[in-house]
Protein backbone atom coordinates (compact mmCIF):
# COMPACT_ATOMS: atom_id res chain seq x y z
CA UNK A 1 0.00 0.00 0.00
CA UNK A 2 1.18 3.47 -0.86
CA UNK A 3 -0.45 6.57 0.56
CA UNK A 4 0.57 10.16 0.04
CA UNK A 5 -1.14 12.92 2.02
CA UNK A 6 -1.06 16.46 0.69
CA UNK A 7 -2.17 19.50 2.65
CA UNK A 8 -3.58 22.20 0.40
CA UNK A 9 -4.94 25.63 1.22
CA UNK A 10 -8.63 24.72 1.78
CA UNK A 11 -8.50 20.97 1.20
CA UNK A 12 -6.38 18.04 2.27
CA UNK A 13 -5.84 15.09 -0.06
CA UNK A 14 -4.80 11.46 0.10
CA UNK A 15 -3.59 9.50 -2.91
CA UNK A 16 -3.94 5.77 -2.29
CA UNK A 17 -2.62 2.77 -4.19
CA UNK A 18 -3.48 -0.65 -2.74
CA UNK A 19 -2.50 -4.12 -3.88
CA UNK A 20 -5.63 -6.27 -4.37
CA UNK A 21 -4.43 -9.69 -5.46
CA UNK A 22 -3.25 -9.39 -9.07
CA UNK A 23 -4.68 -5.88 -9.45
CA UNK A 24 -4.08 -2.56 -7.78
CA UNK A 25 -6.73 -0.08 -6.68
CA UNK A 26 -6.16 3.65 -6.98
CA UNK A 27 -8.19 6.46 -5.45
CA UNK A 28 -7.90 10.10 -4.47
CA UNK A 29 -9.66 11.34 -1.34
CA UNK A 30 -10.38 14.94 -0.44
CA UNK A 31 -11.26 16.63 2.84
CA UNK A 32 -12.68 20.17 2.97
CA UNK A 33 -11.11 21.73 6.07
CA UNK A 34 -13.79 24.32 6.85
CA UNK A 35 -16.81 22.00 7.15
CA UNK A 36 -15.07 18.62 7.47
CA UNK A 37 -16.85 17.38 4.31
CA UNK A 38 -15.15 14.48 2.51
CA UNK A 39 -15.34 12.99 -0.96
CA UNK A 40 -13.58 10.49 -3.18
CA UNK A 41 -12.58 12.67 -6.14
CA UNK A 42 -10.97 10.12 -8.45
CA UNK A 43 -13.82 10.54 -10.95
CA UNK A 44 -13.86 14.36 -10.89
CA UNK A 45 -13.60 15.58 -14.50
CA UNK A 46 -10.50 17.64 -13.70
CA UNK A 47 -8.73 14.58 -12.21
CA UNK A 48 -9.75 12.39 -15.14
CA UNK A 49 -8.54 14.85 -17.77
CA UNK A 50 -5.30 15.79 -15.99
CA UNK A 51 -4.17 12.45 -14.55
CA UNK A 52 -6.17 9.43 -15.62
CA UNK A 53 -7.03 9.88 -19.30
CA UNK A 54 -3.44 10.49 -20.47
CA UNK A 55 -2.42 7.11 -19.01
CA UNK A 56 -5.55 4.97 -19.39
CA UNK A 57 -7.23 6.56 -22.46
CA UNK A 58 -10.69 6.31 -20.88
CA UNK A 59 -13.11 8.67 -19.19
CA UNK A 60 -15.34 5.88 -17.82
CA UNK A 61 -14.02 6.05 -14.27
CA UNK A 62 -15.53 5.05 -10.93
CA UNK A 63 -14.42 6.44 -7.59
CA UNK A 64 -11.89 3.59 -7.32
CA UNK A 65 -9.87 2.45 -10.32
CA UNK A 66 -8.58 -1.11 -10.68
CA UNK A 67 -5.50 -1.49 -12.84
CA UNK A 68 -2.31 -3.49 -13.23
CA UNK A 69 0.79 -2.83 -11.13
CA UNK A 70 2.70 -0.94 -13.83
CA UNK A 71 -0.14 1.49 -14.58
CA UNK A 72 -0.94 1.82 -10.88
CA UNK A 73 2.59 2.91 -10.05
CA UNK A 74 2.71 5.31 -13.03
CA UNK A 75 -0.61 6.88 -12.01
CA UNK A 76 0.51 7.20 -8.39
CA UNK A 77 3.78 8.89 -9.42
CA UNK A 78 2.05 11.24 -11.88
CA UNK A 79 -0.47 12.18 -9.19
CA UNK A 80 2.31 12.71 -6.64
CA UNK A 81 4.04 15.17 -8.97
CA UNK A 82 0.83 17.07 -9.81
CA UNK A 83 -0.30 17.32 -6.19
CA UNK A 84 3.02 18.91 -5.23
CA UNK A 85 2.54 21.74 -7.74
CA UNK A 86 0.82 24.56 -5.83
CA UNK A 87 -0.54 26.16 -9.02
CA UNK A 88 -2.15 22.83 -9.93
CA UNK A 89 -3.57 22.51 -6.39
CA UNK A 90 -5.03 26.01 -6.62
CA UNK A 91 -6.87 25.13 -9.83
CA UNK A 92 -8.03 21.80 -8.37
CA UNK A 93 -9.38 23.52 -5.26
CA UNK A 94 -11.40 25.91 -7.45
CA UNK A 95 -12.93 22.89 -9.22
CA UNK A 96 -13.65 21.24 -5.87
CA UNK A 97 -15.42 24.38 -4.59
CA UNK A 98 -17.72 24.14 -7.62
CA UNK A 99 -18.23 20.39 -7.17
CA UNK A 100 -19.04 20.74 -3.47
CA UNK A 101 -21.87 23.18 -4.25
CA UNK A 102 -23.65 20.39 -6.14
CA UNK A 103 -23.64 18.14 -3.06
CA UNK A 104 -22.47 14.59 -2.61
CA UNK A 105 -19.65 15.52 -0.25
CA UNK A 106 -20.69 13.11 2.48
CA UNK A 107 -18.17 10.28 2.19
CA UNK A 108 -17.32 8.51 5.43
CA UNK A 109 -13.62 7.80 5.74
CA UNK A 110 -10.95 8.63 8.28
CA UNK A 111 -8.56 11.24 7.04
Fold topology:
Layout: E1 2-7, E2 11-20, E3 23-32, E4 38-40, H1 45-56, E5 65-67, H2 69-83, H3 86-101
Antiparallel strand pairs: 1-2, 2-3, 3-4, 3-5
Helix pairs in contact: 1-2
Commentary on this structure:
This protein is α+β, with helices and mostly antiparallel strands. The chain has one domain (2-101). The protein has 3 helices and 5 strands; from the N terminus they run ββββαβαα. Strands 1, 2, 3, 4 and 5 form a 5-stranded antiparallel beta sheet that branches. Strand 3 (23-32) and strand 4 (38-40) form a beta hairpin. Helix 1 packs across helix 2. The longest helix is centred in the C-terminal third of the chain and has 16 residues, at 86-101. The radius of gyration is 13 Å and the shape is globular. The two termini are 16 Å apart. The mean pLDDT is 95.
Poorly predicted regions: none
Shape: globular
Q: Give the quaternary arrangement of the chains.
A: single chain
Q: Determine the structural class based on helices, strands and strand pairing.
A: alpha+beta
What does the main sheet amount to?
5 strands, antiparallel
- Rg, please? 13 Å
- Roughly what is the average pLDDT, rounded to an integer? 95
Q: What percent of the residues sit in helical stretches (DSSP H or I)?
A: 25-40%
Number of strands: 5
Share in β-strands: 25-35%
Write the H/E string, N to C. Answer: EEEEHEHH
Count of DSSP H/I helices:
3
Amino acid sequence: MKTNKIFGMRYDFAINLYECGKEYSFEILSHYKTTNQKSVITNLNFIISELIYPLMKTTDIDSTIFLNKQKGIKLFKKSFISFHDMNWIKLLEEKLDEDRQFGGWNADFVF
